[in-house]
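TOKENISED FOLD:
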Amino acid sequence: MARENKIVSGYQDGTFKPTQSVTRAELMAVLRRAAEFGFSARGMNRDLVAQEPSKTFSGTQKYWAAAIFAQMSSYCSVASALNEIGDRFAFDDSAKRNYAAAATWRMLKCVKAE
């Protein structure tokens, strides 16, 4: 269902790699698409409206998901710095369970509020 609704996708070469760890960047991409799907499923505009100023994370400016980090940081702080301190996002680090749970909870609260 997630693939059919474009919440998850594979890599550019067509592979999915289901046993590979998910990076923090990949998690943000999935959470953004999940939020957009949530709005679409309720017949609402899919655009995520900023709830606060976006954060600037160090070392992410030229990264493929830089715009996603900025968008998801302004969307109820779904994207946050590593260990919630400083400005390092650690985009290629594995998404630890505690971070994935907290980011997912923040995203769901934001979607529900709109």
About this structure: The chain has one domain: 24-113. The helical segments are 24-41, 66-74, 97-113. Residues 24-113 form one domain.
